[in-house]
Amino acid sequence: MASLLAKKPLDKLMSEAEETGEHCLRRALGPMNLVTLGIGAIIGAGIFVITGQAAAQFAGPAVVISFVLAGIACAFAGLCYSEFASMIPVAGSAYTYSYATLGELVAWIIGWDLILEYAFGAATVAVGWSGHLRAFCHDIGLNLPVMPSSNFTLLGHAVQLKYDYIGFIIIGVITTILVIGIKESANFTTAIVILKVAVVCMFIALATAFLWSHAWQPNHWHPFIPPNTGERGHFGWSGILRGAGVVFFAYIGFDAVSTAAQEAKNPKKDMPLGILGSLVICTVFYILVSGLLTHLVPYTNLNVPDPVVIGMRVTGHPWATFLVELGALAGLATVMLVMLLGQSRVFYSMSRDGLLWPWASKIHSRFRTPYLSSIVVGVFVAILATLIPLNVLDEMTSVGTLLAFMLVSAGVWVMRRTHPEVNRPFRTPMVPLVPILSILFSGTLIVSLSYWTQLRLLVWLVIGLAIYFSYGRKHSKVQALNIAASEPRPAPTMAD
Fold first, then answer.
1. DSSP letter string, 425-492
2. Element (H, E) at 151
3. What is the CATH number of domain 10-484?
4. CA gyration radius for the chain?
5. pTM to 2 decimals?
6. Domain residue ranges of the chain, discontinuous segments joined by +
7. Dihedral angle at the C-alpha atoms of 416, 458, 479, 11, nearest 10 degrees?
8. Distance between terminal CA atoms of the chain?
9. Is 76 exposed, middle or buried (0-12, 13-18, 19+ CB in 10 A)?
10. Which percentage of the chain shows pLDDT scores above 90?
């Protein structure tokens, strides 16, 4: 049991953070790059896709409260992430933090969980991007062909397999950008973030002006909290909680920033700024957009891939609708980029520790990126985006994120007790209260998700543990160091 909880030494992590050379990641990201990476991941599917689905299926206009609850949970987790990201500025995010605080088995679980979070997250956004592209093409008189779907029953549960070739193609394009280089990816993200923030601000301004000029009519906030249908999670307060668990997907970008710590120029100073800055900015946008959208359009009409476009059409500005569609396409592309970036960096870190196969940490001699990891992840995510329905993808992403937040928050608490002397450029306030609140909020949101989502998480973790015990534990570099340290040394001879 002690070997399963073996921790990676902090001095080893710090030495990895300071490594340079052609076989290491390039430090090319400044504070603005990190903030825009966070905004690039956060503002996307949450506003342009998930908002409408959460309102239509679970919370109604009270989806605004769902965003507030999810934002509070993220604020607590963000404070914990910021302490770790400034203290241990290496790639791998929550996986690396857990390795240093909670031991190898927990680190494996969180690393495998992050694969779930980022892979399913990127696939979710690819599905949303496909829907927006179809709507955009339809508006300009071009109808893209639709592939037929397959329906069957598995374990008494209806399953639908769709065939979305558009999602497959866009994941391929984003993967190519990531293989070329992190600086190029960040510059691409920065340019697109400026565009989509401008589009979001335009929607807020036009929707507010329209409602103001029409004496705040139409008003579809009555009832603000629709009565529960008799089924847990469908409207009422249980629906608000279920909605918070679903829209939690919209916030996952800020923790993806921490996966790029080893590529930041000054991570100890800039990582907290990137994490918390992007989180605060995007939370304000989410609350405003969700409130205005459900005010303009009946929540029952928002279960579509492009709800913000539907809201903009109500304002009667065709040119603005066109710009929103373009902004959504561009914005969703950056979300996919950051999710795939995070996924490949987690693979990279786990491979360097020996827990995954060596090819995952191989660095391209010219681009200085983990190119094989990016390619393999890209193919896997493209297949997910092609086959799996949107509602399954977004809840799987949310449950993976919430579990990661719980373990990171626990790690901050443990680290404060076991290594109080370590330099912390950013300190989480009110420890252990903030970590405890983060764990409680995240745990509550996990419970609020569907039973099938919780079951899928359990199955995913079982698969991961099978890989760990069959490969990871046998090739772990930390385990090898512990075995070498425990072996008796030969007695000195006269010659010695």
1. SS--SSTTHHHHHHHHHHHHHHHHS-HHHHHHHHHHHHHHHHHIIIIIHHH-HHHHHHHHHHSPPPPP
2. strand 150-154
3. 1.20.1740.10
4. 23
5. 0.74
6. 10-484
7. -30
8. 37
9. buried
10. 15
